[in-house]
Amino acid sequence: MSQDIPCQSSSLDDWLCYLERVHPANIEMGLERIKQVADSVHLLNSSSKIIMIAGTNGKGTTARCLESLLLAQGYSVGTYASPHLIRYNERVRVNGTELDDQYHVDAFDLLEKGRGETPLTYFEFGTLGALAIFKRCEVDYVLLEVGLGGRFDATNIVEPIASVITTIDLDHKEYLGDTRELVGYDKAGIFRADKPAIVGDLNIPHTVTEYGDEISAELILSKRDFFFEPKQSSFVWRYKSYECEFEKPSIPAQNVATALTLLARLELLPELSVIERCLGDLKVEGRFQKLSDSPKVFTDVAHNPESARYLKQKLVELKQQGFKIHALIAMLADKDKASVINEVSELIDFWSLASLDGPRAEQASNLLPLLSQEQQQSANMFDSVHMALDSQLSQLDGQTVMIVFGSFFTVAEAIQYWQK
């Protein structure tokens, strides 16, 4: 970098390098610092209506479903998501489209000048940057994915018109706790008094409903107030006077049902033909994404037990079609690797284990003991996802499907490999 602090004419890469080193911690819980900066640059007086989306899994797919259904009705929509797969620009979309680098540079420059001596983490800079962009673009609705938990996440400085919890499972246990009750309580921190709070989890911890009742949130709960029933190639959604059957989408139907319920409650649900068209077109990068037809290769960001259970359902469908499964896995060291592997292990015919790069990366050699004795004997180990793909793709026959999974980093490497 040509200078210590970038400016409005600096590149986005220069800014991102600066944000990575300007704060000593990747995560620092608490809202006082970020709210102070937001107030100093007047980010919280936007006219946009904000919907917050928390959950262990399913935030991205729920947000993409909401985005599609709102855009189909002519609303302007800003969507904030993290982490990104390939480019930072993926984190902020306006009307379904990533923005030029200069939008992000302008936002970071505004924050840097306005924060004074107040330190911000990389994620906090990104969150405030997204809010600055949405205010600048004057969008009708903002879909704000919560980063970690809810109660003390940087996104929780806003006042939403409604809040959503997609699913609740164990992840980030060092921050959120080691029980679903603790995790659920933290996520429920995005609820607001007298505002709709939609919970899509199928086994809602009592801490979620107790907190919602305590603050008088308007709780709308799955299996009590709305329902979804999966079928062979479709699913049924029921909420109040609505009872609709749709073809099974490419994303989890549970998350679609949650999104539909939210829009119905806000009186923003489009007509049936629009919903069907939007669901048919839905695709989310890295969520059981097909990379190749020949050989057949899919990739999925599954990195915790719940997301692995959803991946397992997709693999069962492939096995029922007569395919063998070759799994290429690479994970981060701080994830529940044993549980993830255990969820899918019985469906896997052959394993390739790869190492990731970075301070949180797990080595392939540490994944090997998590396989069964029989699987260990035939498994291959590689120094990277790239090397594993180079070696193994030529070994796949027409009756074998490769699934590359275990982390956002794993999926990013696989996608970049294909792009090259």
UniProtKB/TrEMBL annotation:
<dbReference type="GO" id="GO:0046656">
    <property type="term" value="P:folic acid biosynthetic process"/>
</dbReference>
<dbReference type="Pfam" id="PF02875">
    <property type="entry name" value="Mur_ligase_C"/>
</dbReference>
<dbReference type="GO" id="GO:0005524">
    <property type="term" value="F:ATP binding"/>
</dbReference>
<dbReference type="Pfam" id="PF08245">
    <property type="entry name" value="Mur_ligase_M"/>
</dbReference>
<keyword id="KW-0436">Ligase</keyword>
<comment type="pathway">
    <text>Cofactor biosynthesis; tetrahydrofolylpolyglutamate biosynthesis.</text>
</comment>
<dbReference type="InterPro" id="IPR001645">
    <property type="entry name" value="Folylpolyglutamate_synth"/>
</dbReference>
<dbReference type="InterPro" id="IPR004101">
    <property type="entry name" value="Mur_ligase_C"/>
</dbReference>
<keyword id="KW-0547">Nucleotide-binding</keyword>
<dbReference type="InterPro" id="IPR036615">
    <property type="entry name" value="Mur_ligase_C_dom_sf"/>
</dbReference>
<protein>
    <recommendedName>
        <fullName>Dihydrofolate synthase/folylpolyglutamate synthase</fullName>
        <ecNumber>6.3.2.12</ecNumber>
        <ecNumber>6.3.2.17</ecNumber>
    </recommendedName>
</protein>
<comment type="pathway">
    <text>Cofactor biosynthesis; tetrahydrofolate biosynthesis; 7,8-dihydrofolate from 2-amino-4-hydroxy-6-hydroxymethyl-7,8-dihydropteridine diphosphate and 4-aminobenzoate: step 2/2.</text>
</comment>
<dbReference type="GO" id="GO:0005737">
    <property type="term" value="C:cytoplasm"/>
</dbReference>
<feature type="domain" description="Mur ligase C-terminal">
    <location>
        <begin position="286"/>
        <end position="408"/>
    </location>
</feature>
<dbReference type="InterPro" id="IPR036565">
    <property type="entry name" value="Mur-like_cat_sf"/>
</dbReference>
<dbReference type="GO" id="GO:0008841">
    <property type="term" value="F:dihydrofolate synthase activity"/>
</dbReference>
<comment type="function">
    <text>Functions in two distinct reactions of the de novo folate biosynthetic pathway. Catalyzes the addition of a glutamate residue to dihydropteroate (7,8-dihydropteroate or H2Pte) to form dihydrofolate (7,8-dihydrofolate monoglutamate or H2Pte-Glu). Also catalyzes successive additions of L-glutamate to tetrahydrofolate or 10-formyltetrahydrofolate or 5,10-methylenetetrahydrofolate, leading to folylpolyglutamate derivatives.</text>
</comment>
<keyword id="KW-0460">Magnesium</keyword>
<feature type="domain" description="Mur ligase central">
    <location>
        <begin position="53"/>
        <end position="196"/>
    </location>
</feature>
<dbReference type="GO" id="GO:0004326">
    <property type="term" value="F:tetrahydrofolylpolyglutamate synthase activity"/>
</dbReference>
<comment type="similarity">
    <text>Belongs to the folylpolyglutamate synthase family.</text>
</comment>
<keyword id="KW-0479">Metal-binding</keyword>
<dbReference type="InterPro" id="IPR013221">
    <property type="entry name" value="Mur_ligase_cen"/>
</dbReference>
<keyword id="KW-0289">Folate biosynthesis</keyword>
<dbReference type="InterPro" id="IPR018109">
    <property type="entry name" value="Folylpolyglutamate_synth_CS"/>
</dbReference>
<keyword id="KW-0067">ATP-binding</keyword>
<dbReference type="GO" id="GO:0046654">
    <property type="term" value="P:tetrahydrofolate biosynthetic process"/>
</dbReference>
<dbReference type="GO" id="GO:0046872">
    <property type="term" value="F:metal ion binding"/>
</dbReference>
